[in-house]
Amino acid sequence: MRVADNLRNIQTAVARACERSGRSTEDVTLIAVTKYVSPERAQEAVDCGIYHLAENRKEGLLEKQTILQDDRIIWHLIGTLQTRKVKDIVGKIDYFHALDRLKLANELNKRIEEGILNCFVEVNVSGEASKHGLTEDQLDTFIDALAQFEHLRVIGLMTMAPNTEDIDVIRHVFRRLRELRDQIRDRKISYAPCSELSMGMSHDYEIAVEEGATFIRIGTALVGNA
């Protein structure tokens, strides 16, 4: 299907999820995850008015940016980042969704010469060994330690729910992330306002919206996977 058709379906689903949860669609930002598609397909998303684009890997990000030279695009890096690759992406992304260790935070901060990088701290709410991110018990200490990095701002938390058909399990993960977000937000930390929630992908974004997602990361359902 065309991206435009997929977008209409997603917008309808998001609107219904917002209605069910008493939210406004204006509070939900759609990110097109373009890691599996060509630059041409990504351009199709931009042509539909989707300016938030996300890549998982440095290589994909730089390739897309070389071709899609459009000042309206807001770039997100949503995958795990090795410290040795930080130097290649600093200054090229607007949001980083996978901050999960101090060594990485230090490297990012060291490489950023001016300005602020908006970051989501990744939390492994489900506890799955296959997933990256902090445990709940590590979160507060990690947030405290980020005070030393003047170029990083924690705007929210990010997680991925288990790949399961059990809606209750998925909902629990998203709801718990929202609770953790609220706890940090209520501390009123200047460098960690933590007002956002990056959660929800192609198979579970409606549940994520119902549970408070402000950024949803959609690939297959929006732009496909080839």
Question: Which terms summarize this structure?
Answer:
single chain, 226 residues, alpha/beta, TIM Barrel, eight-stranded parallel β-sheet, globular
Number of helices: 9
Which homologous superfamily in CATH is the superfamily? Alanine racemase
Give the beta-strand count: 8
Q: What structural class results from the helix and strand content?
A: alpha/beta
Alpha-carbon distance between the two ends = 12 Å
Shape: globular
- What are the segments in which pLDDT stays under 50 over at least 5 consecutive residues? none
Order of strands side by side in the largest beta sheet? Answer: 7-6-5-4-3-2-1-8
Return the CATH class.
Alpha Beta
What name is given to the CATH topology?
A: TIM Barrel
C-alpha-based Rg, rounded: 17 Å
Describe what is shown at a glance.
The chain is of the alpha/beta class.
Tell me about this structure.
There is one protein chain. This protein has 226 residues and is α/β, with parallel strands linked by helices. It has one domain (3-223): TIM Barrel, CATH 3.20.20. The protein contains nine helices and eight strands. Strands 7-6-5-4-3-2-1-8 form an eight-stranded parallel β-sheet. The longest helix is centred in the N-terminal third of the chain and has 19 residues, at 3-21. The mean pLDDT is 96.
